[in-house]
């Protein structure tokens, strides 16, 4: 039985396309979260800019993230456009940066540039199996089901949604928790970004396997929600 896991979802302030500035903003929230795992929104390192340059894992602009994760013992899950091209999720820890997930179900506008990822994925951290997702994936019931088949303790996702879609986020979280009896953590973009998102939902949250809302941020950039996951 693994030890309890402190998990946080964070919504950093974002400067469109400025990876260096955004990496620093992510690092600030990693330190503030004081968590073993911190999940960030979809495309958080560039903003929801569908024409942003692709991010390579060895990009030197990500160094502040690696350094901060090494200092705090954190694994950060960061949204980024990656080779493929795909809408991806980067895992950042003391060892460096790797692409751990590629969005399986891009939306129609996203699909003009980005390919569907190959398959669901699970990342194990400190004995906890975290199923990975990005935004629209969370609304496709088969995605959570296929991820659950891999064996998981929590389903974590980075999102970018309009301000009035926070209710939809909660509906999806409750469905996933009820159907698969897992923790659910959604990191939701806060503040304006590209792609027509002049106002985003924020309100990142974490739900227990019985559907209880454990913590939730407000709509403001800089918000963090935290929970201690236990079995």
Structure description:
The chain has 4 helices and 12 strands; from the N terminus they run βαβαβββββαβαββββ. The chain has 231 residues and is an alpha/beta fold. It has one domain: Carbon-nitrogen hydrolase (Nitrilase/N-carbamoyl-D-aminoacid amidohydrolase). The strands form 2 sheets. A 6-stranded mixed sheet has the order 5-4-3-2-1-12. β8, α4 and β9 (183-188) form a beta-alpha-beta unit. The radius of gyration is 15 Å and the shape is globular. The protein starts with a strand and ends with a strand. 50% of the residues are buried.
The global form is: globular
What percent of residues are in strands? 25-35%
Task: Detail the poorly predicted runs.
Answer: none
Helix coverage percent of residues? 10-25%
Oligomer: single chain
The secondary structure category is alpha/beta
CATH superfamily: Carbon-nitrogen hydrolase
């Amino acid at each position: 039985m693994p030890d309890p896991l402190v998990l946080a979802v964070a919504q950093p302030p974002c400067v469109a396309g400025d990876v260096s500035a955004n990496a620093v903003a992510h690092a600030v929230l990693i330190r503030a979260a004081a968590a073993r795992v911190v999940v960030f929104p979809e495309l958080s390192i560039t903003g929801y800019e569908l024409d942003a340059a692709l991010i390579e894992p060895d990009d030197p602009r990500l160094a502040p993230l690696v350094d901060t994760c090494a200092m705090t013992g954190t694994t950060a899950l960061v949204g980024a456009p990656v080779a493929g091209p795909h809408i991806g999720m980067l895992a950042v820890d003391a060892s460096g940066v790797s692409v751990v997930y590629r969005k399986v179900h891009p939306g129609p506008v996203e699909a003009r540039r980005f390919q569907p990822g190959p398959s669901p994925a699970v990342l194990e951290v400190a004995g906890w199996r975290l199923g990975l997702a990005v935004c629209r994936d969370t609304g496709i019931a088969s995605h959570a089901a296929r991820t659950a088949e891999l064996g998981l303790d929590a389903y974590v996702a980075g999102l970018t949604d309009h301000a009035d879609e926070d209710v939809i986020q909660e509906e999806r979280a409750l469905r996933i928790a009820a159907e698969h009896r897992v923790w659910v953590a959604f990191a939701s973009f806060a503040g304006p970004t590209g792609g027509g998102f002049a106002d985003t939902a924020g309100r990142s949250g974490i739900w227990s396997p019985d559907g209880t809302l454990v913590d939730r941020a407000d709509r403001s950039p800089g918000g963090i929600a935290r929970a201690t996951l236990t079995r």
